[in-house]
Structure formats: structure tokens, C-alpha cells
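Below is how a single chain appears once it has passed through the pipeline. First comes the sequence as given, then the structure the pipeline wrote out for it. We keep one example in the README because the format questions we get most often are answered faster by looking than by reading.
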Amino acid sequence: MRTAIWWIRRDLRLSDNQALSVAISQAEQVVPVFVLDPVLWRSPYVGDKRLAFLLGGLRSLDADLKSRGSYLVLRKDDPVPVLRALCHETGAEVIFAEADVSPYARERDARVSAVLPLQRVGGLLAHPPGTVLKKNGEPYTVYTPFKRTWRSLPLPQVDDLLPAPDWIKTPADLASLPILDHPALPACVLFVPGEGVAQQRLRAFLAEDVVQYAEDRDRMDLEGTSRLSPYLRFGMLSLQQALVAVLAACDACKGAEAWLNELIWREFYMHILYHFPDVRRESFRESLREIAWENDPDAFAAWQEGRTGYPVVDAAMRQMLATGWMHNRARMVVASFLTKDLLIDWRWGERYFMQHLIDGDPASNNGGWQWSAGTGTDAAPYFRIFNPILQGKKFDPQGAYIRRWVPELNKVPDRYIHRPWTMPPEEQKAAHCVIGHAYPSPIVDHAWARERTLAAYKQAKLS
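Resulting structure:
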């Protein structure tokens, strides 16, 4: 009886799963396995909430497999000996896995394929690296022409989506570790892991919120985003299904087109990471690799803990610490503040985000941080420096987002909510918010910091 291993990595789903579909088509028995890789488990970029979300997703996948006559095999060790042992136990002749783009994933897969029959298939991206190139064969480093070529290529249609199998035959009694429930997701985390929840969220978003997405997606005080990023991150929802659904809605509303652009940005950053893996270690722009960062540890700690004295920055950081998620506009604001107000190396912020975000993705996180720092491929110009006060006024006009996450400011009048340090002393007392005591004074003057950063970046370009 021919047996295949389905090696699960970032595809925690049964529907529209190319690796699973190929395994079922080529073998009578399929062994679904997830390997707890110590390199990833102990990485300095790991986060408890993301681990908890992953473990919850594995429990959900195991339940879905059991309803189809199968089960999840969980093993822990380096993937090479784990998969070698599993091939020996089951007589498996082939291993199918969804191809990944990160430097470690590619190195790991190369080690496995050197000694075992690993076959990588598509599924992570609509257009894999190497398929979206300039006419001269070079990769794009600017989003707009990438998007133009990406959209000119064939896109998935509803008939291309693969249904979940009705039944999966798996050898019985294979040894498997229990799926731990530690670390646990805090109650305030609003994301329930699992393919079923992902499907429900996609349907609800496209039925209701996508109409206003273009207008509301930057408003931090509104529920205007899809909140599907954690599910795409772990493949509880396939990108192809998301694309089919949103493309069908594009003719009906501009919100669908705006969300499609965000999905293409996600692909763009994955292509960048594939073609330029060094972006994980250094700035893409060679001229900005020698910025004289201040890297003040006290300022970094204040930013981490949401006590910079700038309300919208502090609200965003506290939202992430509590929930493992942060509004996308807020991510840009706090990244700009760290790199350009505090002049702290973007890599410090990139790592901190990965340690706390449920949807932390190596490609998108790196791309977003380098964009904000002005050091990346399709980056904001280095002289574009977000004003945290104006960003708050524009995208949280009444301060509802601030008041939710910075309760010290609950009673501060609207006219002072974005600059509470300008309140007269008597109004500070009336609002129970004495600046410097109940809430910190700004740790840096934005106008002064802007000039400091411009000088540092100019010097880096000259050197």
C-alpha cells in the first residue's frame, strides 16, 4: 500500500490544500505530520501568543482530521531525523510539503531533500518567486510595477479551489506527542484559531465590511479591517480562496480592490525575501546601512511598554501587548516613531513585533519595518516622518482608540486627547491625569527629533 507523508508547516487547513491533495492523489495512505522544530521553537523571534495560536490551530486541524478518519502526528526534533524515522515506520515513499520562502525554511528543506524524497508544491503564493519578473529576468523591487505584472498573470478561479477531502486513510497507532495547551491564548485575544473560524471571518468580511474597507481601513477607532492576517499567516485560510472571493467582489465596490492591493503587498514582500534574503539582517538600501542609530535602551523600553507620552503610540503598543495584534495604520505610526523620533534601529522593532504579534510573518514584518524606516525596497522616503499627533487626529479623531487602550486618558477632553501635556494644570487635575504622574510627559520633542533624524540619514547617505 503506497504511503505518503503530508508535512504540514504553514498550511493548517484541509480545503484548497495543494500538498494534501497531491498526497491523496498519489498514495492510498497519507500521514499528516507537524514537526516542532527546536530552531523555530526557541528562536528569539518567537512569541507566546503566536505559539498559542499555532497550537490551537493544530488542535483544530487534528479534530478536522479525526472527523475524516485520520489524525495529526506531532513530533519534536530536527525535521531530518523525524521525517526519516517516520518514513521507516510507515514505509512512506514520498513527502509532500508546501514550499516556503524564508531563508531558514529554504535551508531546512534543502537539508531534508538531500536525504529524503521531499517534493515541494505550491499554495503559499498565487504566483511563486521566479514567475513575477521584469523583462530582463530580474526581480521587481518597487511595488507598482510588481503589481502590474502580478495582475497580468493568470489568477485562481473558483474552479481551481480544491475541496476538503471526505476521508483520509492514515496508518493506525503512530506515536504522537500530545498537543499542549501551553502557552494559552489570553482571553483578550480576539482570534480563535482554526480553519472553520477563518472561513466564517472571510464570509462575514466580504458580506459586510468590505464595502467600507477603502474608507475605514486606516481608522484605528473603527473595526474597518479584515482581521484575517493571523489565518493567512498559518494557512488556516488559503491565499487562493481569499483571492477568488475578493476578485469576485472587485466589480461591486472599491473596498474589495483596496483589500486586493493589501494581498498583493503580502506577495510582494514574500518575493523580496526570497530574492534578497539578506533583508532579514540589513537594510535593503545600501546607502542607509550605516545610520548612526541612538539605540537608547530607556527610550526603547518606554516604546515597548506604551509610555512614550504620545497617546496614539502608547495605545498601539498596549493593544499589541494585550491582544497580539495591532491595527495596520498603528503599526506604521509606532514604527516611524521608533526609527525616526527615537532614532532606534528598525531591527529592534522588527524583532519585538515578532515576539508579540499573532500574525507575525517574517516577510511582511520585515517589509513593513523597512518601509517605515525608509531603508527598504519600495520604502517611504527617509525624509517622510510621521507626526504622531497629526496621525492620531486624522485616524482616531475623537480619541476612542486612545481611551480604550490608555485608560489614564479616559477623562481628558477631546481637544487635548492627542496632546495631553498641553492641558492647563487645573484641567489635568479635573481629568485625574496629571502629566508626569498619571501619564508621562513626551519622552522626545517631535520637531527636534525630526531634524536629528534627517541629519543622521543624510550623513549615512554621504558616508
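The first strand starts at residue 3 and ends at 8.

See the next section for the split statistics.
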